[in-house]
Automatic annotation (TrEMBL):
Record carries keyword Nuclease: no
Per-repeat ranges for ANK: 21-53, 63-95, 93-122
Keywords for this protein: ANK repeat, Repeat
Annotated ranges, domain SOCS box: 247-288
Pfam entry (one): SOCS_box
UniProt entry tagged with the keyword DNA damage: no
Gene3D superfamilies the record matches: Ankyrin repeat-containing domain, SOCS box
Pathway noted in the entry: Protein modification; protein ubiquitination
Protein name: SOCS box domain-containing protein
């Protein structure tokens, strides 16, 4: 039904008029999950990168601007795929659609976005962190975290801390933080570090396995006293601490070097003239069996 109406309207409207309206029909089709209309509009050549006007974007708390954002927030993989295939840019919104997809735990959408160039090291301008915000949303999805790390997510940024082995200031509870926000009505200015985020009560039970995964993606590193405290808090995590003993194994250092030379396109690893087991190791597939997820 709506396809018919839209196809009747298309010839009698003009692109200029649409542009002036501050919203494109693609946005409306994506917002309302009208996949068939979306397909029609894409085929008719509507700009998949069209953004909402500033005023319209400000009507949303998340300042969304693209049709892709609407598709992803609706968990609509079909619409997401159509837009990306048509060349939609996944890095135009303030809050990256990739962060949304990770938060929703939708592997299919995450994969689509990353394969089409979504920035795996996305940050949130209003909530500064010293590590990629993508990591923040992976706390309960270790396989997703590994996937992002395989695609160039910055593990080192997570393990660096301005306090190092010195004592850390007390952890801000959510209550303290929200009091602060209420009073000043603006986000905290000091960027949050990974060790602070992982210390939040809802996250700390995952600290060991997450640090363990991150360690596979860095060379020699010294963890800050807070991360060490986490590893000490649970005896099963002692093995993770052993992994840290410098120097890291030569195999790990070689893997780091080879992966950085190969770059983000991990599929290129398979074209190297190397035995299968070595390729598996380079792909971080050596411990799939006893993985945590
Ligand atoms: C997505 O929806 C469109 C329109 O309904 C349809 O033509 C297309 O086959 C669907 N694609 C997938 C991958 O389901
Ligand atoms: C999104 O879709 C996935 C898979 O189709 C599903 O597991 C998940 O619960 C959905 N999330 C939301 C927020 O609807
Ligand atoms: C959308 O933006 C991306 C990235 O800037 C660009 O590669 C692509 O060609 C654009 N697509 C269209 C249809 O303009
Ligand atoms: C946060 O609140 C707790 C309990 O009210 C208090 O003990 C602690 O000092 C507060 N921390 C900061 C940084 O204000």
């Amino acid at each position: 039904m709506s396809v018919k109406i839209v196809s009747l309207l298309m010839p009698v409207t003009s692109m200029t008029r649409i542009r002036r309206s501050g919203i494109s029909p693609l946005h409306l089709a994506a917002e309302r999950n009208k996949d068939d209309v979306l397909e029609l509009l894409i085929e008719a050549g509507y700009d998949v990168n069209a953004t909402l006007s500033h005023d319209r974007s400000m009507m949303y708390e998340d300042r969304r601007s693209t049709a892709l954002y609407f598709a992803v927030i609706n968990n609509n993989t079909n619409a997401t795929e159509m837009l990306l295939e048509a060349g939609a840019n996944p890095n135009l919104d303030t809050f990256s659609p990739l962060l949304l997809a990770i938060r929703q735990g939708c592997i299919k959408t995450v994969t689509l976005l990353v394969e089409h160039g979504a920035n795996v090291n996305a940050y949130i301008p209003t909530h500064p962190t010293t590590f990629p915000a993508t990591v923040m949303f992976c706390m309960r999805y270790l396989s997703l975290l590994k996937y992002l790390l395989d695609n160039g997510c910055d593990a080192m940024a997570c393990l660096q801390c301005q306090y190092g082995s010195n004592p850390h200031p007390p952890i801000m509870t959510t209550r303290n933080r929200s009091n602060l926000d209420d009073r000043t009505d603006e986000p905290p200015k000091v960027p949050v570090q990974f060790c602070e985020m992982i210390s939040a009560p809802i996250n700390s039970r995952w600290a060991g396995p997450i640090i363990d995964v991150l360690l596979d993606y860095v060379g020699n590193v010294q963890l800050c006293s807070r991360l060490i405290e986490h590893l000490d808090s649970y005896e099963d995590w002692a093995a993770i601490k052993e992994k840290l003993e410098p120097p890291r194994p030569l195999m790990q250092l070689c893997r780091m070097r080879i992966c950085s030379l190969v770059g983000r396109r991990r599929t290129r690893l398979h074209t190297l003239p190397l035995p299968g087991r070595l390729i598996k190791y380079l792909n971080h597939e050596e411990r799939r069996k006893n993985d945590y997820c």
